[in-house]
């Protein structure tokens, strides 16, 4: 099916179940459902995945993040999401991770960060309830940039030299706290 399809955008089709599409490398989904997220996990050839505006989803099911060639993951507007799945740290090809406007996100996985050896860019914006960075962030030797915005508790904990989490990110060459 669709052997040349490499880029796919899906807008407001939460009941759409994705078949196996091995040629798709770039997928953007707006307003998805838990069922649709399950079908996305079958797209093992993805390089980029953008998930946006999924109000119904409060958690990712374990096993969803088994995309070994995924380099870019953007999770935006998951307003009910409280935690990211542990297996997000198994995305060993991941170089760019953005978590935006996940207002109720309380924690990131505590373990496995050392496996994200390709991660170069991490952006956390609008995650008001996120209280700290996991200890494993210290092991992200390839991390070149970290952006934290509109995360009041996390911003305070990551203040240069004085924040409780500063030692976890002191090795990152470019740390930014943008004011929008």
UniProtKB/TrEMBL annotation:
SUPFAM superfamilies: L domain-like. Residues 24-150 form the Disease resistance R13L4/SHOC-2-like LRR domain. Pfam families: LRR_14. GO terms for biological process: defense response. InterPro entries: LRR_dom_sf, LRR_R13L4/SHOC2-like. It comes from the Eukaryota. Keywords: Plant defense, Repeat. This is Disease resistance R13L4/SHOC-2-like LRR domain-containing protein.
């Amino acid at each position: 099916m669709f052997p040349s399809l490499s880029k796919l955008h899906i807008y407001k089709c939460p009941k759409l179940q994705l078949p196996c599409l091995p040629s798709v490398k770039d997928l953007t989904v707006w307003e998805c459902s838990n069922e649709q997220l399950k079908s996305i996990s079958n797209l093992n050839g993805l390089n980029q995945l953008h998930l946006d505006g999924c109000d119904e989803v409060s958690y990712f099911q374990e096993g969803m993040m088994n995309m070994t060639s995924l380099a870019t993951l953007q999770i935006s507007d998951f307003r009910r999401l409280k935690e990211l799945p542990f297996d997000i740290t198994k995305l060993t090809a991941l170089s760019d991770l953005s978590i935006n406007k996940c207002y109720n996100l309380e924690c990131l996985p505590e373990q496995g960060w050392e496996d994200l050896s390709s991660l170069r860019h991490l952006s956390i914006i609008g995650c008001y309830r996120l209280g700290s960075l996991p200890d494993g962030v210290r092991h992200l030797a390839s991390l070149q940039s970290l952006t934290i915005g509109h995360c009041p508790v996390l911003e305070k904990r990551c203040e240069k030299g004085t924040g409780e989490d500063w030692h976890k990110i002191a090795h990152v060459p470019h740390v930014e706290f943008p004011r929008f």
